[in-house]
Amino acid sequence: MPKSNKVIVSCAITGSIHTPTMSPHLPLTADQIAEQAIGAAEAGAAILHLHARNPEDGSPSQEPKHYNLFLPRIKQSCNAVVNITTGGGLGMTLDQRLAAAKWAQPEVASMNMGSLNFNISGAAAKITDFKQPWEQPYLEMTKDFILSNTFTQIERGITELSENGSKFEFECYDIGHLYNLAHFVDRGLVKPPFFVQGVFGILGGIAPEMEHLLHMRSTADRLFGEDYYFSCLGAGRHQMPFATINALRGGHVRVGLEDSIYISKGELAESNADQVAKVIRILKELSIEVATPDEAREMLELKGADNVAF
């Protein structure tokens, strides 16, 4: 299939890794999530990767009622593609993780392409006074935690969400996850074009080394040929370097407060829009064109914003 040379910028607005104590700018309420998502879209993000939070304490939530507080407002206020997580919050059941995407029937849903050790406990050691009682145990339990997405779980998620026309952001935390995706491609359960998101820098997944980025891309080239688009995210301080290198090699980028709460060394990002604006400024300085939401829809062959359930 013909490939566009424009870069799709995704923005992950809040996620389920960072906790309220880590940054006063992390969006937690429905109003904050909506405002920051709309701001990111206005700054140039084509895709908004969305999690919900419990408005009472900022903890991760996959309840459709919490998504319903901000999804209609986002849809009414901008043209960005909505991408809803099926990873949810750490420790959730598969039913909980799938609930929001099954209800919302978005254009895109994320899909973790395998199970892995997922250790973010180091963040707890840097904090002495937590704002919410759930934060410290949530972080520290990941020393003995496996983020589960077995072949059976992946197949169920793909099958149930495909029924509503949703396509996927295939999140690959290691090289083996690309081969897991190829397994489902070979079985005919997913159709091209594939939107692959390489995830670098989570303890338990592939390390944030540029050699690994090149290896993951060359492996994906062998497995999927011209049938995929490769985006990547670098966690924490690796966010902008990985975005830049991947874009220079014809790939796509993801930024957002889910992946890093900083805008530069030691400086907290005040909004998701700030990170989007920064990466787009870098891309433009390198004479790289940025895709609009509708161009991203065409590239990824999405069903369109009129065909979602919110």
From TrEMBL:
Presence of keyword Zinc: yes
Could you tell me which InterPro entries the record lists for this protein? Aldolase_TIM, BKACE
The answer on whether this UniProt entry bears the keyword Metal-binding reads yes
| Keyword list, A-Z | Metal-binding, Transferase, Zinc
Q: Which domain of life is it from?
A: Bacteria
Q: Which cofactor does it need?
A: Zn(2+)
Q: Which GO MF term does the entry hold, naming one?
A: 3-keto-5-aminohexanoate cleavage activity
What is this protein identified as?
Answer: Uncharacterized conserved protein, DUF849 family
